[in-house]
Amino acid sequence: MRLAFILSELGSGLRRNLTMVISVILVTFVSLTFVGAAGVLQLQIGQLKGFWYDKVQVTVFLCNDTPTNTNCAGGPVTADQKKNIEGILASPAVKPYVESWTFETQAEALAHFKEQFANSPMVDSVEAGNLPSSFRIKLTDPQKYQIINESLSATPGVDSVVDQRKVLDSLFYLMNIATLVAMIVAGLMIICAALLVSTTIKLSAKSREREINIMRLVGASKTVIQLPFALEGIIASTIGALLASGAVWGIVRFFLGDYLAKGSSGTPVISQTQALVIYPVLILLGILLAGVSSVVSLRKNLKT
């Protein structure tokens, strides 16, 4: 009987406040879409950082089958040239500035390339011979990059010396700023959504004040009285959260997966599988948003 009564009151409330319910859905949809977009952006930053930003400060690319400077005029790096480079890294003039280093073979470079660019259409057309082997060097002081550059850039067998952090810092800075802006906008929109849910619940409760008083007189509990109103907000917010999840899926699928990955072969992008973690978070946020707003608004309007 109680369940039938709650469902009846819920349906009545949704019909009476249809315009406000639609408003709640739309505001929740927009606010949580910003939250989801910020989450996607952070996942994308993590994808870019994932392999080399947190691990590498300087990369010494060695000559391969496709030389790009005069150091590589003799062809791919030889074993003797590689040993000479290792000797320079261990020399008294350079060693104090090197915390650690690792050597990445062409096969390892290909494996990392396939991992980072899994969504790129060019991944299957790249072979190990197309990628250079390299020394990945972590410096004791990142500001001392020029010492490594001057010591190795003209060494036979070295194609180029790249300060990878310097290349990526500006990109990550801009992306973090974009994430911050998206989160600020999302926060403001969530506040608007919470206020709108609260207003919708108050109006609904006000319009049925006589019915509420009768239910109190016949001994209905607070939970039975409040639940239909709370469910109105939760249903509207959940629909908005589902729409926001769909919008985020579209961003990952069509913008990142199709447009960005295919239009820029040098940009590793997150996959749809990686983005799955965002969707339940958005739905949970939608439910919490409505639940908290409902409890706060009903505490005053329906107190005994």
TrEMBL record:
Transmembrane among keywords: yes
The ABC3 transporter permease C-terminal domain is annotated at 183-300
Protein role: Part of the ABC transporter FtsEX involved in cellular division.
Record's keyword terms, sorted: Cell cycle, Cell division, Cell membrane, Membrane, Transmembrane, Transmembrane helix
Chain segments annotated as coiled-coil in the UniProt record: none
Query: So which domain of life are we looking at?
Result: Bacteria
What is the organism of origin for this protein?
Arthrobacter silviterrae
The entry's localization annotation reads: Cell membrane
Protein name according to UniProt: Cell division protein FtsX
The family assignment reads: Belongs to the ABC-4 integral membrane protein family. FtsX subfamily.
> Chief location of this protein?
membrane
What is its membrane topology? Multi-pass membrane protein
Where does the sequence pass through the membrane? Answer: 21-45, 171-197, 229-256, 276-298
What is annotated about its quaternary structure and interactions?
Forms a membrane-associated complex with FtsE.
Specify the FtsX extracellular domain's residue ranges.
56-161
Report if keyword Transmembrane is assigned. yes
